[in-house]
């Protein structure tokens, strides 16, 4: 087993930097469905470009490399303690080499361990089996999509759909509702794993287990096969689209599993995964620890480099129909009030990262830099220091903005911030503040970590590094950083509009389908 640690390192790097073939095919199908020239098509083009860049740079597809979860099946007699030790060492090494972001945080003190290790992290689950090889599967599931998981206790009342009873039709309603409530915040278009039955914890476990099934497999249980097919056909009619911009592709895969329950409980648990569906697997020789075979690599591969040529044409088309505005911070109130929902902006200059810890800090402290007229970027990047002590951004896409909703409006007013960049949109409190103060919300493409890292020309400084790399305030000099205005200073919000229209569409599915 001496090669096992190296095999785990290879698995981690491959999972973080390359999407498996079945996921690539699902993304290619979504691209084919989306009409060229729309905002959703532009978002998908950026996603495709990002996948290609991650392949070429062997760098994380998304900066949020998530919670590493290993599912391992071993023949009798394999030393699980040694395997655990090797996996932990491989995780620490991958973090040091910038293939994983340091993501493990003490829940009480907020301190980042710096190496992705900690109490319960990574998650490693063993099971014994009769086969003579080891099967290791890994999923890197980020926070934006993990936060959109949802569990229903049947019977229940669902917005737009009415009563969901304890039957197949009630399950159908829960799954449609799960897709609706995620909107674009989990970086749609996404994949869902559904667990029917169990208790609260085993139900979620079963839901997550479904994400390890190949995207194009067929459910062996006939009722569930039909339900999966129904969901794939109809969830895409909700019009949520890529990044919640509206559009044809909202769901890329749906897998449903079932287990027994006790009579008093009936749970439907849904695990949501973003388009950056990083899960991979290997078969390992138990004698040497070497990789015998890579999993999820059957079938046709998608050559995204060809897609890129088409993408450039589509972006040109989109920009031909849209106002494209260059911004150089600091911004004035007048400049910001001229921006409207739907405008594309290209930013060049210095922007400042800030996410959960920074927002909480700024509520009661002075800012470390003058933020008047500046732009805050909701981003927790992967950063590496070179031998001369200079920092470089290795992955730097947006994080979910809604977490900052309690703080954002107050911070913008207190420090004179004119724009925030993030993903998934913000709520009514921020929209009101944008109106009163003169500010905009700019939606970048979630998960496009390589695409945006490429826009960062230098790291000019960092403050509050004691919060850990993802939470520090990085001063990033960017060039042609592109984002879409989705909330403006006139009270318009694309997110609000898409949520309203998708709720109307959801209510079309109120009538029973499965008896
Ligand atoms: S693609 Fe979006 S939801 Fe997925 S890990 Fe990245 S930021 Fe999170």
Automatic annotation (TrEMBL):
It catalyses: (S)-malate = fumarate + H2O. The keyword Cell inner membrane does not apply. Coiled coil: none annotated. Homodimer. Keywords: 4Fe-4S, Iron, Iron-sulfur, Lyase, Metal-binding. Belongs to the class-I fumarase family. Catalyzes the reversible hydration of fumarate to (S)-malate. Residues 289-497 form the Fe-S hydro-lyase tartrate dehydratase beta-type catalytic domain. InterPro entries: Fe-S_hydro-lyase_TtdA-typ_cat, Fe-S_hydro-lyase_TtdB-typ_cat, Fe-S_hydroAse_TtdB_cat_sf, Fe_dep_fumarate_hydratase. It comes from the Bacteria. It holds the Pfam family Fumerase. Its cofactor is [4Fe-4S] cluster. Its EC number is 4.2.1.2. Residues 6-282 form the Fe-S hydro-lyase tartrate dehydratase alpha-type catalytic domain. This is Fumarate hydratase class I. It comes from Geobacillus jurassicus.
């Amino acid at each position: 087993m001496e090669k096992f640690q190296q095999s785990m390192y290879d698995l981690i790097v491959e999972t973080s930097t390359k999407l498996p073939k079945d996921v690539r095919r699902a993304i290619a199908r979504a691209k084919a469905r989306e009409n060229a020239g729309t905002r959703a098509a532009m978002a998908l083009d950026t996603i495709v470009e990002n996948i290609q860049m991650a392949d070429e740079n062997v760098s994380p597809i998304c900066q949020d490399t998530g919670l590493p979860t290993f599912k391992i099946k071993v023949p009798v007699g394999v030393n699980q303690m040694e395997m655990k030790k090797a996996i932990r060492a491989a995780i620490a090494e991958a973090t040091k080499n910038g293939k994983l972001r340091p993501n493990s945080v003490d829940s009480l003190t907020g301190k980042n361990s710096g190496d992705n290790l900690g109490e319960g992290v990574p998650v490693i689950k063993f099971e014994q089996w009769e086969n003579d090889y080891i099967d290791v599967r890994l999923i890197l599931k980020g926070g934006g999509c993990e936060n959109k998981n949802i569990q229903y206790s049947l019977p229940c009342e669902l917005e737009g759909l009415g009563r969901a009873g304890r039957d197949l039709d009630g399950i159908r309603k829960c799954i449609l509702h799960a897709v609706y409530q995620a909107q674009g915040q989990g970086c749609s278009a996404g994949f869902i794993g559904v667990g029917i039955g169990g208790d609260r914890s085993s139900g979620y476990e079963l839901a997550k287990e479904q994400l390890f099934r190949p995207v194009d497999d067929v459910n062996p249980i006939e009722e569930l096969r039909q339900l999966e097919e129904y969901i794939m056909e109809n969830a895409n009619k909700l019009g949520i689209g890529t990044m919640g911009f509206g559009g044809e592709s909202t769901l890329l895969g749906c897998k449903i599993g079932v287990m027994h329950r006790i009579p008093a409980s009936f749970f439907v648990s849904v695990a949501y995964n973003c388009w950056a569906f990083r899960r991979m697997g290997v078969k390992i020789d138990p004698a040497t620890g070497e990789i015998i075979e890579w999993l999820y690599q059957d079938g046709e591969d998608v050559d995204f480099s060809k897609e890129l040529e088409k993408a450039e044409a589509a972006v040109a088309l989109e920009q031909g129909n849209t106002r494209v505005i260059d911004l150089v911070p600091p911004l004035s109130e007048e400049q910001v009030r001229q921006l409207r929902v739907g405008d594309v902006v290209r930013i060049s200059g210095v922007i400042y990262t800030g996410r959960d810890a920074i927002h909480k800090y700024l509520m009661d402290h002075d800012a470390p830099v003058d933020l008047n007229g500046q732009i805050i970027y909701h981003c927790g990047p992967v950063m590496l220091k070179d031998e001369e002590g200079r920092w470089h951004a290795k992955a730097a896409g947006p994080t979910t903005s809604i977490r900052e909703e309690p703080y954002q409006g107050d911070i913008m007013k207190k420090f004179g911030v004119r724009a925030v960049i993030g993903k998934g949109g913000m709520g009514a409190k921020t929209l009101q503040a944008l109106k009163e103060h003169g500010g905009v919300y700019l939606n970048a493409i979630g998960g496009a970590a390589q695409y945006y890292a490429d826009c960062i020309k230098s790291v000019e400084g960092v403050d509050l590094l004691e919060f850990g790399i993802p939470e520090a305030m990085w001063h990033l000099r960017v060039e042609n950083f592109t984002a879409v205005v989705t909330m403006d200073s006139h009270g318009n919000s694309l997110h609000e509009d898409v949520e309203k229209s998708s709720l109307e569409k959801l209510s079309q599915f109120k009538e029973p389908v499965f008896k």
